[in-house]
Amino acid sequence: MLNRKPLLGLAAMSVFSTGSAFAIPPDHQDDKTGDVVFSASVESQCGIEATEDQADLAFGESYNESHATVKLVSNRNGIKVRAEEIKIESFNGQIQKGDVFFQSTGTTELDQSAVSWESGVDITRDQIREDNNMNLFARVAVDESNLDASDDYEVKTKWKIECN
């Protein structure tokens, strides 16, 4: 006849050792959740792009409806926009830089002389977020009847932004 006591003892030890294989770590509170972290970095961006690079020039005290458009890009605190170059050579000395005026709409609403635009205009990040297109109108504060007849008058400008 078989002795059943050693078999029962062996069966009990195997249940005990199988149960200890599923131990939970001491810091783990709930084995039904787990953290997943997604991360990324945003590259710093700052720039200007002429999306409409030509417009008609107005004479006198009023602007016409034609305008150039520049797109401002900045995910920093803000920028300074300035007219880096203003070329008026086509007027052959009939006007000075102070006779040229630029009006902006969109990102910022300003109307000032070319000389003031050379110093620059500060624009905040919130203004850019609201509307990043700056429309530029140009006029020469001289009546066209005071200029020599010509089809070739132009004001060439280069616009630059300084990133803060």
From TrEMBL:
<protein>
    <submittedName>
        <fullName>Uncharacterized protein</fullName>
    </submittedName>
</protein>
<keyword id="KW-0732">Signal</keyword>
<feature type="signal peptide">
    <location>
        <begin position="1"/>
        <end position="23"/>
    </location>
</feature>
